[in-house]
Amino acid sequence: MSETHTQALWWASESFWRKMAIWVTAGSFVVLIFLTFDTVKQITAGTKRVPAYANALNHRIDYVFDAKRNFQVPVIGVEEPLFGKKLTEEEAEAMVSHGKLTTQAKNCMNCHTLLGNGAYYAPDLTKAWLDPAWGSSAAREQAMVDFLMHPELAAHNALGRRMPNLGITEDEARATVAFLKWMSSIDTNGFPANFKPIDQADAAPVVEPAAPAAPAQQ
Ligand code: HEC
Question: How far does the centroid of ligand 1 lie from the alpha carbon of residue 138, in Å?
């Protein structure tokens, strides 16, 4: 009688749990492979959330409230080439990648967060390009280059902490600005929350998400 009873509990048998372990491991493995490919697709430049390098660098990045999603999203606006020079996709990618390498070589994440990753001593840099503290959008590019090369010369905002001089060359500073401009164009689901962007309202923004801007009509 007790023999039959043990056999009836199929779900408590060792062989059942061994099979379960194998199936769950194999199933998770397949799901992880799928998620890995899906993530790579979502974070590649030139896709819905992450604009192509030249698209971001050659246009204004507007930051507009999306009522449906209930937060602000970056929108590619009118043509407004970084440092006044329109770049090809190859040139733009090289510049952004030089800037990214600079942020890695100088370990900006030791103090800052980028897309939320890093340290909390200094401000998050995800939307640094859109920070009103640069003054006007016209003065911004040079102000950022000057600040990155000589952050010790002027307090930038009212944070009460100062960024040290990291020996950044002008080339590296310009590339870093390109990297920051491109990063600000990434749709981060509204991160960081409650960010107030710089006023760039000197021309009407194009409101179609990621629409390549019509050639400037001024
Ligand atoms: C030792 C810490 C430290 C390191 C390393 C550092 N920073 Fe900073 N950074 C700061 C602090 C502190 C501030 C705020 C300064 C102020 O408000 O005057 C700041 C401010 C900034 C700002 C202005 C932020 C904004 O939203 O307007 C930018 C841009 C910036 N840093 C970029 C960088 C980059 C790029 C690197 C790496 C190349 C870097 N920082 C490395 C401490 C650091």
Answer: 21
pTM higher than 0.90 for the full model?
Answer: no
Instruction: Specify the ligand 1 atom closest to the Cα of 179.
Output: 35
Task: Work out the angle at residue 199's Cα, subtended by the Cα atoms of residues 194 and 201, and round it to the nearest 5 degrees.
Answer: 125
Ligand 1 lining (C-beta closer than 6 Å): 102-103, 106-108, 110-112, 121-123, 125, 128, 131, 133, 148, 155-157, 159, 161-164, 166, 168, 176
Atom 10, ligand 1: residue with shortest CA distance:
163
Token pair 């307090």 is at which residue? 155
Query: pLDDT tens for residues 33-51?
Result: 999 999 999 999 999 999 9
